[in-house]
C-alpha cells in the first residue's frame, strides 16, 4: 500500500475495523453452497464421464479459490498491524496464498477451455461418444499437464516485480478471451448440431449437445 494511502482516513478506518475481512469471509463461505449444489447436479445428470470429470475438477478448482480467499480473510483478521494488508509478501504466508490464488485462477481458465474442446468432440458423433468409455489416460494427462503448467506459473511469481505482474495479468486476460472464443464456437456448434438431431436421435444423444448450452 502506498504511504499516502496508508495514512488516509479511509484506510485508517478500515484498518481499525474488520469490515473487509468479515465481508470477504462471509461472501466466500457462502460461495461453497452453489459449489456443493453443482457437484450434486453433475453427479445426477446423464453426462458422459469425460464431461463429468472435467466439470467436477473445474468446480473443485473454484472451491480451491474460495478456500484461499477464506484464508486471506482469516489472515487479515489475525494481522497484528491492522485489518488491511500493506503488502502481498508480508507476512510471507500471504505471498504463498497469492501464489495459490493465481494458480487456481489459471487452472480454472484452462479447464474451461478444455471443457469447450470436449463438447466440440462430443457433438461429432453424440451417440457413439455417449456410450464410449472414460478416456482416463487423456484426462489424467490433461490434469497433470495443467498442474505442471500452474506450478511453473507460481514458481515465476517470486517477487513484487510490477512488470511480471503485468505479464501475468495480460496472460489471464488473454486466457479469458480464448475461453470466450472457444465457448462461443462450442455453443454455436452445439446449437447447430442439436437442431440437426431434433427428432432424429435419442434423448441421450441430444443431451450431449444440449447440456453445454444449458450449463
From TrEMBL:
<feature type="transmembrane region" description="Helical">
    <location>
        <begin position="53"/>
        <end position="75"/>
    </location>
</feature>
<protein>
    <recommendedName>
        <fullName>G protein-coupled receptor</fullName>
    </recommendedName>
</protein>
<feature type="transmembrane region" description="Helical">
    <location>
        <begin position="20"/>
        <end position="41"/>
    </location>
</feature>
<dbReference type="InterPro" id="IPR052860">
    <property type="entry name" value="NRL-GPCR1"/>
</dbReference>
<keyword id="KW-1133">Transmembrane helix</keyword>
<keyword id="KW-0472">Membrane</keyword>
<keyword id="KW-0812">Transmembrane</keyword>
